[in-house]
Amino acid sequence: MDSDSNRSRALDELLDREEIRKCLTRYTRGIDRHDAAFAASAYHPGATDDHTGYIGPGDSFPDWANAAHDSTWEAHQHYITNTTIDLDGDTAHVETYWIVVGRRKQNTGTDMHGGRYVDRFEKRGGKWGIADRVCVYEWGLRSEEAVQQLASFPLGTQDRSDVSYMRPLKVLRKRTV
User: Fold this and answer.
1) If 0-12 CB within 10 Å is exposed, 13-18 middle and 19+ buried, where does residue 131 land?
2) Cα–Cα distance between 128 and 106 in angstroms, integer?
3) How far apart are CA 74 and CA 11, in angstroms?
4) pLDDT at 155
5) pTM here?
6) Model confidence at 151, in pLDDT bands (50, 70, 90)?
C-alpha cells in the first residue's frame, strides 16, 4: 500500500475520532444548557441510555436529566476528560471519563461526582452518534451522596469484566421508561 493511501486512511480515522469527540461535547453542552434537543442530537434513533434511574431511549434522556438536575441544582457543569476511541469500521467503542459539579439550590453546597460514559457509537449515513450508552458511577465527594448513587448506577470493576470491555456494548439492565 502506498503512502498516499496510508495517509488518506489515517486522515479518515482522525476525522472519525474528531466527529465522535464533537458528539460527546454536544451532549454535555446540551445537558448543561438544558437544551434537550441539542443533547439528544448526540444519539441515533433507537439508542438506549442506561443512566442511573433512567434506562430508556437516548433521545428522551436529556428531558429526564433536566428534571433530575433541577430538583437539586441551580447550576451544573459536566466535564469530559480521558477518552478512548476504538474504531472498527462504522462502529466505535468509546470510554469517556466524566466529572459533574453542581451548585445546590440557594447556594447550600456543591456536589461533585465522577464516572465514565461507556458508549457504542455507530456511523449511519455518514454521521457518528451514540447507539448505546452505559453511564458508570465511580465516586462522589460526599460519602452520603455516593452511597445513594452507588446503589442506583451501573458500577465498574477494575478488571476485564468491566462493561468497557464488552464487545459489542449492549445495555443489559431492564428498561425503566
Assistant:
1) buried
2) 39
3) 42
4) 85
5) 0.92
6) confident
